């Protein structure tokens, strides 16, 4: 393997103001390529993942002490091009990582935070933030068991697609919500037992008529009216996991008010529960669950779908300029699977 030449200058995306409008909040700047410390590595990014929460971060909702300018992007996959003398990852190794500042051409981080993978194929990237969110939350908070009914909202998205398959592999009956007939067919193709297109079916009526006893577990990422319907549809001892509230991300206020004052009286009679899940708080579980996810992928037990925007009005998302386009595309509601951007095409990509 030829040693990659490291330039002196790189580009990255920084937020220069607080706003949920990613394109307005950010700009691309040039900056010196950082040198890794003794226990650090320098990664040349191939792909980066787009997440609904990217605009929550540019809006300043995750860290009250954060002040612009600050780096953006949560996750990437690439190749190690330099390593400190105390690093446990070698130059030339392909790695996945989850660390703030991924929207850049090069990324420095502690070697212990990198997850070695066989190559930089894009199908591995959804396993990171999306796959870990789905698997850990459904196991730790959902406590899913074979025979239970699991409802996944936004099921055709990056995390949703993997939540559907994780629950199916656990022997659950899986319901998934989506916004088009094309996505209904996509969900059926990955094993979803009941795909609900809420644009053509009344979501709450479907649950009431087809699942009169309620659902055991909900993997919820939408918020607003969807959240209310899910709460009302919980079974006795039902568990609802909040992994996001995308319906409120684009607003300046960030959250569409829900009827939370009635929540206690809805949960108490059913001994039901609602828990928030933020994957960054579960770092000690990453290695175990990433190993499981990779094994399932390699063994053909799950499929990992990526959307590089080839059918979008922007065309394929490439380089840092494609990140804002990819964020807009995610929020258009037309994406399927994990939206990703190819930062560098010198890896002989076949996509």
How would you summarize this macromolecular structure in one to three sentences?
The protein has 351 residues and is α/β, with parallel strands linked by helices. The protein has ten helices and 16 strands. The longest helix is centred in the C-terminal third of the chain and has 13 residues, at 286-298.
Q: Describe it for me?
A:
The structure is a single chain. By secondary structure, this protein is α/β, with parallel strands linked by helices. It has helices at 22-25, 54-58, 129-140, 158-169, 181-189, 203-210, 224-232, 263-267, 286-298, 321-332, and strands at 9-15, 26-32, 40-49, 70-71, 75-83, 94-98, 106-110, 115-117, 149-152, 173-178, 194-197, 215-220, 234-242, 273-276, 306-307, 338-342. The strands form three sheets. Strands 3, 5, 6, 7, 8, 15 and 16 form a seven-stranded mixed sheet that branches. The chain has a six-stranded parallel sheet with strand order 11-10-9-12-13-14, with helices on both faces. Helix 3 (129-140) crosses helix 4 (158-169). The two termini are 22 Å apart. Keywords: Oxidoreductase. Its EC number is 1.3.1.48. Pfam families: ADH_N, ADH_zinc_N. This is 15-oxoprostaglandin 13-reductase.
């Amino acid at each position: 393997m030829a040693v990659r030449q490291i330039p002196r200058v790189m580009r990255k995306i920084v937020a220069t103001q607080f706003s949920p409008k990613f394109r307005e909040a950010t700009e691309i700047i040039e900056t010196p390529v950082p040198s890794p410390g003794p226990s650090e590595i320098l990664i040349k990014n191939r792909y980066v993942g787009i997440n609904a929460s990217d605009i929550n971060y540019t809006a300043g909702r995750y860290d009250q002490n954060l002040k612009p300018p600050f780096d953006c992007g949560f996750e990437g996959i690439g190749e190690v091009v330099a390593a400190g003398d105390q690093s446990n990852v070698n130059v030339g190794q392909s790695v996945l990582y989850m660390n703030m500042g991924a929207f850049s051409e090069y990324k420095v981080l502690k070697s212990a935070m990198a997850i070695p993978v066989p190559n930089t194929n894009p199908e591995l990237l959804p396993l990171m933030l999306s796959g870990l969110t789905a698997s850990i939350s459904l196991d730790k908070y959902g406590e899913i068991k074979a025979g239970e009914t699991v409802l996944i909202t936004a099921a055709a998205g990056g995390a949703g697609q993997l939540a559907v398959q994780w629950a199916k592999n656990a022997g659950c009956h899986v319901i998934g919500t989506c916004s088009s007939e094309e996505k209904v067919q996509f969900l059926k193709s990955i094993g979803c037992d009941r795909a609900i297109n809420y644009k053509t079916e009344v979501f709450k009526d479907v649950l009431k008529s087809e699942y009169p006893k309620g659902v055991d577990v909900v993997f919820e990422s939408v918020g607003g009216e969807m959240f209310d319907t899910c709460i009302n549809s919980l079974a006795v001892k039902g568990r609802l996991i909040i992994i996001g509230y995308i319906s409120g991300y684009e607003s300046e206020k960030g959250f569409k008010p829900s009827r939370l004052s009635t929540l206690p009286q809805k949960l108490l009679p059913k001994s039901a529960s609602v828990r928030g899940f933020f994957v960054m708080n579960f770092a000690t579980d990453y290695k175990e669950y990433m190993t499981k996810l990779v094994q399932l992928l390699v063994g053909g037990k799950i499929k990992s779908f990526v959307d590089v925007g080839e059918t979008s009005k922007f065309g394929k998302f490439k380089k840092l300029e494609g990140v804002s386009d990819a964020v807009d595309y995610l929020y258009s509601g037309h994406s399927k699977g994990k939206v990703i951007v190819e930062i560098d095409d010198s890896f002989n990509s076949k996509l």
